[in-house]
Amino acid sequence: MPEDQSPVGRMMAKLVATKEKWAREGRALTDHPTGTPPDRLPPGQHEVKNWPVLDLGVRPHIDLATWSLVVDGLVALPLVWDWTTFQAQPQIDDVSDIHCVTTWSRFDNQWRGVSARHLLAQVNPLPEAQFLVFHAYDGYTTNLPLSAFDDGDVLLAHSWNGAPLTIEHGGPVRVIVPKLYFWKSTKWINRIEFTVEDRLGFWEQRGYHAFGDPWSEQRYG
Ligand SMILES: Nc1nc2c(c(=O)[nH]1)N[C@H]1C(S)=C(S)[C@@H](COP(=O)(O)O)O[C@H]1N2
Ligand SMILES: [Mo]
Fold first, then answer.
1. CA pair distance 131, 199, nearest whole angstrom
2. Whose atoms come closest to the Cα of 187: which ligand?
3. Residue 1 within any structural domain of the chain
4. Which residues surround ligand 2, an ion (CB under 5 A)?
5. pLDDT per residue over 25-63, tens digit each?
6. Shortest CA distance to 190 belongs to which of 167, 170, 206?
7. What is the domain-level CATH number for residue 91?
8. Considering the domain boundaries, does residue 151 fall inside one?
């Protein structure tokens, strides 16, 4: 095809050349290194390499000798685990991404701990149990459907990237719910309560979404 030398033709050629250059350079794909599908980042999020700390400002120091996890409410077999009993449970490793409602995401976090499904098998939720409330040592609470907790990538994590979780990130044990915004991933967990109704947690009472799916941007409301 002969080159169109009209003003519009020259402008189009320049535009196409620019777009071709961008495509070669991977313009606007800078958040996605080679091998990372662009759809790994939910809408409105950007990738960070550090790990920001967000909480209510109270970071409880919990002695492992007195640490405990209570699981109660609508379950057939309520339990209390001390540290030794918690450590004696089967352990899983899972790698997942963090999506914080404040728009940062952090890829490839390596968690180790006790899976939610193992916990569910120990307590045997009653048929009327539809939701959970996590309670933490700092007074924080958050809610989610039992169906979201009953997932292969949900765990009670004590380690991150091969080292014990630091206090600021929720050690000795925090919940990890990778498919929901990170405010659902309760730090310093000490009680999991099974409920019939969806009882809103700390941020949910203050306007955050009851469910919090990052892929449909359920940030508020
Ligand atoms: N116990 C407790 N868990 C908590 C919070 C909190 O204040 N207390 N903040 C939540 C919020 S809003 C976020 S974004 C994440 C932050 O976790 P990080 O500090 O490890 O990044 O923890 C969540 N879990
Ligand atoms: Mo948050």
1. 8
2. 1
3. no
4. 54, 183
5. 443 444 445 545 668 999 999 999 999 999 999 999 999
6. 170
7. 3.90.420.10
8. yes
